[in-house]
Design brief:
alpha/beta; Rossmann fold; UDP-galactose 4-epimerase, domain 1; 13 strands; globular; binds NADP nicotinamide-adenine-dinucleotide phosphate
Length: 319
């Protein structure tokens, strides 16, 4: 099949493109630069057809719709669509002439769960603009499937992680290597509240597996949404404990007020943590397992090990 991937050189694309090429597909990638960012370009990207374009600029001047309308593909994977308007352009460009359209959403479309784990069939209650837009795109796509048969699948990733991309860290943010240094050395790590809120990672290659499985099992995936996450979520305390024990220590945790967390972490890093605390995601992968045979290779702990190993090898983390 000929597969068009919009935004195919980032976290997901760096793993998805080589998988599809190895599966015998003809792959065309839209990006501004012909450079996979998280993998050696010689691995799986050699036969890719590059379509170099700036989506934002072309959407602004109207040429994006014409570009899309001129591309022949069997399957379209849109990894970088953030608004219903952007998505409508894609649907109009490809309706009636592709067999499958896969949209990359986010578990932020779900909002904070009322029960854990959250199932794809549970009510969407997004609490921020990003999540509301992705939920609206999902609703539009499901509606188009039901009314016109537009063959859409939505994959909602958790916190994407990979070798060269720091996972959301044990304080629920991305704030350099400091928290890893502290956990490795047995120094005090501050946590908000009781540290019981959850984060839900996914390795980018597992996400690629889910996209690929959805394509292969088209009959089961069309008109459906799937959570792209690891098999389980972890609490912040659980993450701290795991990382500290990797270095043969117990975590030296201090539980402090939100105000103190902001002071210790800085406003930017704390805002990211707060976003994760507010969502406290924990999603089920039962549906993906049953319908698509999705089986993540990476546990959240293995994601941390891979990321920390890379930080040590690259000299960024000195312990
Ligand atoms: N990051 C997370 O933890 C997370 C969690 C949940 C959901 N998601 C969803 O995951 C998707 C993003 O996937 P990702 O993390 O693989 O993306 P990414 O690593 O940020 O990569 C973005 C890709 O899009 C290309 N791109 C960016 N701006 C572009 C433009 N204006 N025109 C053309 N190409 C452009 C980039 O290549 P160039 O820079 O060369 O153009 C690259 O190929 C989004 O839909 C997001 O909502 C992410």
């Amino acid at each position: 099949m000929r597969v068009l991937i919009i935004g195919g050189t980032g976290h997901i694309g760096s793993y998805l493109v080589p998988r599809l090429v190895a599966g015998g597909h003809e792959v065309a990638v839209v990006a501004r630069r012909p450079e996979p960012q998280y993998i050696d370009p010689r691995l799986g990207f050699g036969s890719v057809e590059w379509i170099l374009a700036d989506r934002s600029a072309e959407e602004a001047d109207g040429s994006w719709a014409r570009r899309m309308a001129g591309i022949e593909a069997d399957v379209v994977v849109d990894l970088i669509c953030y608004s219903p308007e952007q998505n409508r352009v894609m649907v109009e460009a490809f309706e009636g002439r592709i067999t499958h359209f896969l949209h990359c959403g986010t578990i932020w479309a779900y909002g904070p769960p009322r029960r854990a784990p959250y199932f794809e069939s549970d009510e969407r209650r997004p609490i921020d603009e990003y999540g509301r837009n992705k939920a609206a795109i999902e609703a539009d796509l499901i509606d188009r499937w039901r009314t016109d048969g537009f063959p859409a699948t939505i994959i909602h990733p958790g916190h994407i992680s990979g070798r060269k991309w720091l996972p959301i860290d044990p304080q629920g943010t991305r704030n350099g290597v400091g928290v890893y240094e502290k956990l490795a050395r047995g120094e005090v790590v501050h946590l908000p509240r009781a540290g019981h809120e959850t984060i839900h990672h996914v390795h980018a290659d597992d996400l690629a597996q889910l996209f690929e499985s959805a394509m292969i099992n088209r009959q089961a995936s069309v008109g459906e949404a799937f959570s792209g996450v690891a098999a389980y979520a972890m609490t912040l305390v659980g993450c701290c404990e795991f990382v500290a024990r990797l270095f043969g220590r117990e975590p030296n945790l201090e539980f402090v007020s939100d105000e103190e967390m902001e002071r210790v972490m800085g406003a930017g890093a704390w805002a990211v943590t707060l976003d994760h605390l507010d969502h406290s995601p924990c999603c089920s992968i039962d549906k993906g397992r049953k319908l698509l045979g999705y089986e993540p290779r990476f546990t959240p702990e293995q994601i941390f090990v891979e990321a920390i190993e890379y930080l040590i090898e690259s000299g960024e983390l000195v312990v």
